[in-house]
Amino acid sequence: MEKKNQPLQFDDDDEDEVVLFGTWSSSRCTRVEIALKQKGIPYRYVEVDLQNKGELFLSYNPVHKAVPVLVHNGKPIAESLLILEYIDEFWSDRGPKLLPEDSYQRAKVRFWSNFCDDKMIPATFQMVLTGGKAEEVEKAVKEFDELLTLFEQGIQRDLPATFSTHRSDDGGEAMGFLEIVVGINVCNYAAIEETVAGMIDEAKHPAFASWVNAIKEKPLMKELLPRHDQLVTKIKGMLASVP
């Protein structure tokens, strides 16, 4: 599969070596690329064959054996949310901050980011794992909608400015931690809707839908989102493989 973007080039005087091991269709990998580019961190990208991961990659992540892995000066960091925090902390003097300064808001951003990864993403995959069977699809869509309701209500309660401002310190182009984590997963909803079923009821979730549509227009999101046709082909292949 072709690479969806070209990484930044290293400067001759750059002492840091940053390598990202990932795969083109993984939202967890793309969120790391967004953070690196938004911070202006040069990096090299290595596409990992998930069917043949190779000894080098497995040596960097021997526990979960999963992408993404960020290798900074030979030291590997696994798990995308941890990588995002590492990027934000290590390069705190470069680019806009990903996490808010306020301790309470940071905790809430982490909570809802984890909710997205632990609940919403698996529910999305469950739609595909139905194999297109009508009753199972309906059940999976209902489960996702219930989780989305919890998320929307929680954000409006805990981080009320999130849905109402779509702007950042640089005038609106940069994305915060939650925008990157959630946006890169949900901004591809059209591929799910084309292949499986309707995913987001905009009439029922207007605040969330407006937020997501605004995130889709961010320059880095538009640059780094996997191509719609490639995702559709991949999802169709997954649907066909379900017994």
Give an overview of the whole structure.
This protein has 243 residues and is of the alpha+beta class. Helix content is 55%, strand content 7%. Strands 2-1-3-4 form a four-stranded mixed beta sheet, covered by helices on one side. Helix 1 packs parallel to helix 3 and helix 8 crosses helix 11. The longest helix is centred in the middle third of the chain and has 27 residues. The two termini are 25 Å apart.
Blueprint (SSEs and pairs):
Layout: E1 18-22, H1 27-39, E2 44-47, H2 55-60, E3 69-72, E4 75-78, H3 80-90, H4 103-129, H5 134-158, H6 162-165, H7 177-186, H8 189-195, H9 206-216, H10 219-224, H11 228-241
Parallel strand pairs: 1-2
Antiparallel strand pairs: 1-3, 3-4
Helix pairs in contact: 1-3, 1-7, 4-5, 4-7, 8-11
